[in-house]
Predict the structure.
Amino acid sequence: MAQRVYRFDGQSLKVFQTGAQHQMLKWQIRIAANSLKACVPFQAKLRRLKHSIKPPVPGRHHELVLDGIFEQVSMIRQAGGRIEGARVLEIGSGWIPVAPLIYRIAGAREVVLSDQHRLLHPRSVQAAVAFLRKRTSRLARELDVDEARVSEVLDVPMSGRLSSMLEALGLRYVVPLNGETLKGEIDIAYTHTVLEHIPPEALTEVFALVRTRLGKGGVFCNGIDNSDHRRSYDEGLSTVDFLSYSDFAWDMQCINPQDYTNRLRHSDYICLLTETGFKLLNTQVHIAKDAMAKIEPQKLPQRFRNKTAEDLCTTWSLILARA
């Protein structure tokens, strides 16, 4: 899967001049290749085998993850949420547990990691710890803790079985996430660049599960990348180019589940949360201003025509809600 960024600077849309055909083929080639991969049997087993030989390691994307989780921690604290001593749930943990370790350093007593498929590997956990150790000073400064707290969380035995490593780090792993596997109450739930990859009908189930598990005063924080993810491997695309496709045409580009994004807009997430019974506490958005100046809602597929240009071009959402 291509690395995802969540921060945009409102850069103007590129106009193709020389070499335009080559530029425009970048995303088509990538999508075609991924679609062919999806047709290969035993994809999940092959991926696990690949990662057992060469587990994923933190990269440039994880510098952005740091920024995103620091923002979440700040937003939760400003709303009166208490991370110290909290039991925290991460939805969609992926391969490298950088984000949950940041919550642990911020004071969480335990972070429950969750996915629909088992992705964590001992060496990817070790890599996440090593990545954060190199950033001890920044972690302490941004999270308003002393460096001893960073060491307390990270300087633990990193050998043996995955379960032993996670226990030493104050982490727990739940796969798949559902009402039976998630035991007990939680104080905080969060996602980071995950919700946009969940089908709308499944989002309602996820939100309902979180709401039933959140204790009194519990909060739900979500960082959502509403942009066209194909832009991560073809910068020639507009940040909202994917809105121009019909549902059928877009589904054809998402044959490989790793390419799927639901194309929900900021207002859609707000509606889903409130319909599930959450009360909004705070929202922050980034709007791609150059894209907003050029988009014409009336020319888009029907599902987008009643949206404002501002909503359509909101490429990043940070939403905090209370159960």
User: Anything to note?
Assistant: The chain has 13 helices and seven strands.
